[in-house]
Amino acid sequence: MQVKNPLTPSARRFLEGLFPGDAAVFTSEEAFVFGTDASRRFAAPWAVVRPENTQQVRELLAFAQAQTIPILPRGRATNTVGDCVPVAGGIVVSTARMARILEIDGDDFVAVVEPGVVTGELQAALAPKGLFFAPDPASVKFSTVGGNASTCAGGMRAVKYGVTRDHILGIEAVLPGGTVIQAGGRTHKNVVGLDLTRLLVGSEGTLGLFTKLILKLLPKPAATATLALAYPSVDAALAAAGDVFKAGLLPVAMELLAREAMDAVAAISAVPWPRDAGAALFLRVDGSPEAVAADVRLLAAATEAAGPVWSERATEPEAEEALWELRRLLNPASFKAAPDKISDDVTVPRGALREAAAGVAAIGAQERVRILLFGHIGDGNLHVNIMHDAASGDERRRAERARERILDLCLKLRGTLSGEHGVGLSKLPFLDRQLSPEERDLLRRLKAVFDPAGIMNPQKAY
Question: Between β-strands 310-314 and 253-258, what pairing exists: parallel, antiparallel or unpaired?
Fold first, then answer.
């Protein structure tokens, strides 16, 4: 239960002095939007502050620890698991005004950024320099680098390039009490001490507040191409995906949309695939122009045996973007598909994808709920949106039962409860199904080393 706002007049004066003007807000009307995220959960913050530099964050976290006030780091709140919701009250710290690209070094192949930099804007700044930052979440146009780091976001290029954790070399973070640590650095190899950088990435704001990130950059590929296909069924599309790997190909991206997900996109946008298609498969390759042309031919050959009913190739950026925009539209489309949704991202071993997809469909039919199934199938990551009307008690119970059964199915298949969205509030009730009591105790003890008073994003993740 949320605690009543206990901020004293002196605490408010401290925050107003540290964050002058509109950098601190206290009224329920001004703070309202900061009480929610893409999970649609809500709890009212006690105050919201917008720091502009590390020194302000240091003073804030020293004050917060002394006063035992919860601190909730917040980027653009695109996460779907309730990571930004202040269920224990506290001060929401928006990184919106720490959004500068501090350095791009083409010799070291690093960029140094503040946490509020929008990932897509960073990618746009790198492109003219022949560089790119590989992580590419579906929310790339509005999510932040700091938020992506906090949840270890994956995205569509993870098949070839890995997830956010694989592209962060160093982090400046402020710990409760105001201590600033520099984890990692700008070298691409570093085995001195324990890897605090990889521990901080994916910690969901529970250990400290990021103030700078040192990112690994790569040379921008000279060419890319996309092959989009539709199949009669999800199983056929997944068979085609398996055939791609069997042919020795490693695409940059490999995305699946099942029929219900395709219909959701078609409800808000014109789509090129046949109305009766059962699944869509999107594949992208990159490299030299010659290698890309050869890979597209190999992709077309590898995916033919599964029996596509439609296909389209795109080799120009505009044509490619038009195809990938259909995939990115899925999240906004899902919010229009039903009044409410339970949004899960689960991951299973690649070899279990067909069994997982069939199991999800069977559970949806048995519980009589509409499920939008899609995801990054190149790394076994499925997104499962259970659509329902929460105002109907019976429908809500069936949706919740379907979710629980799907999570159990994925664990049975030796998968995980979350592939890239984190745990937040949403997955917390199920954590004991994956982690042992000893493992959870170890996580709590690690948190206590960083955050002895337990003020950083409390009641989340573990």
Answer: unpaired
Cβ atoms of 73 and 150 within 8 Å: the answer is yes
In whole angstroms, what is the distance from residue 340 CA to residue 37 CA? 14
Residues in the chain: 462
32 vs 43: CA distance, rounded Å = 9
Q: How far apart are CA 131 and CA 108, in angstroms?
A: 11
Report the percentage of the chain scoring pLDDT > 90: 97
Phi-psi region of 368 (alpha: psi -120 to 50; beta: other; left: phi over 0): left
Task: Name the DSSP letter for residue 411.
Answer: H
Compute the mean pLDDT over every residue in the chain, rounded to the nearest whole number. Answer: 96
Beta carbons within 8 Å of 174's beta carbon, 6+ residues apart = 54, 57, 58, 61, 180, 181, 208, 209, 211
SS3 369: coil
Residues 6+ apart with CB under 8 A from 135: 119, 148, 153, 154, 155, 157, 158, 161, 163, 164, 167
Q: Tell me, what's the pLDDT at 4?
A: 61
Half-sphere CA count of 178, side-chain side, radius 13 A: 10
DSSP type of residue 34? G
Residue 3: pLDDT over 60:
no
Residue-wise DSSP of 201-237: TTSTTSS-EEEEEEEE-EEPPSEEEEEEEEESSHHHH
- pLDDT, tens digit (0-9, with 9 covering 90-100), for 298-321: 999 999 999 999 999 999 999 999
**pLDDT tens profile 371-405:** 999 999 999 999 999 999 999 999 999 999 999 99
245 vs 224: CA distance, rounded Å = 19
* CA nearest to 360, candidates 377, 336, 380, 382: 382
Separation CA 124–CA 167 (nearest Å): 17
The predicted-structure confidence for 316-369, as pLDDT tens digits, reads as follows: 999 999 999 999 999 889 989 999 999 999 999 999 999 999 999 999 999 999
